[in-house]
Amino acid sequence: MVDSSVIPIPLPGSTDLVLLLLAAFRSQSIASPIIFASCAFAGSVIGGYTTWAAGKKGGEAALDRLGKGRFVRRVQGWVKRNGMLSVALASLLPPPVPLMPFLLAAGALGLSRGRYLISYCIARAVRYGAVAWLGYKYGRQVINFWQEDLKGWSTPILVAYISLLVLGALYGIWNYRRGNKKGK
How many angstroms separate the CA atoms of 60 and 32, rounded? Predict the structure, then answer.
């Protein structure tokens, strides 16, 4: 849910990684990956809808909070011209493509709830279905490779990943507080 909401996550793609690992470890039957993909889909739809609703309620002022840079202008222009397509593509593409600005812009620029939900739900169902299938089909092989061929590197890679996650979270908190102080 958090991955698709306005709350920034320091490491994008965390949901995909967790879904891949769960599908790989619990892949005794096809039902497990389907359940995991359904849970990821449901959480993503709830989080994405809150982002769209925040944009709808905040209007273009919500977009101004994202900044005035070239990226924000390009997102706004793309969403104005290609409403449903922009939401669908941003929802399908893996990180580092940012999802939140597109969802916020879709709400702020008047994409209707029905059109938003259709494009977002179809794209997220395809994405999480594909991720779960990949985890189910190839996850064990990747885990075996990790355990056998990268045995000496497992701990440093995990420490680096967790360190980046913590540093990203701290940076996000610091940046949020700095922004609030400037606004006062």
Answer: 42
Closest residue by Cα to residue 2 from 62, 44, 53: 44
For residues 80 and 96, give the distance between their C-alpha atoms in angstroms, rounded to a whole number: 22
Cα gap 10→141, rounded to integer Å: 28
The answer to pTM > 0.90 is no
Give the span between the Cα atoms of 86 and 72, in whole angstroms: 14
Asked if 6 and 50 count as a contact pair (C-beta separation under 8 A), the reply is yes
Q: At 69, list the tokens.
A: 């840079």
Spell out the per-residue pLDDT of the chain, length 184, in tens.
666 666 666 556 667 777 777 777 765 666 788 888 898 899 899 989 998 998 899 877 777 777 666 777 788 888 889 889 999 999 998 877 788 888 988 998 889 999 999 999 999 999 999 988 888 888 878 777 777 777 777 788 878 878 887 887 788 788 777 776 765 5
CA 132 centroid distance within chain: 15
Distance CA 90, CA 88 (A): 6
Collapsing DSSP to helix, strand or coil, 93 comes out as coil
Q: In whole angstroms, what is the distance from residue 84 CA to residue 112 CA?
A: 9
Dist CA 66 CA 10 (whole Å)? 16
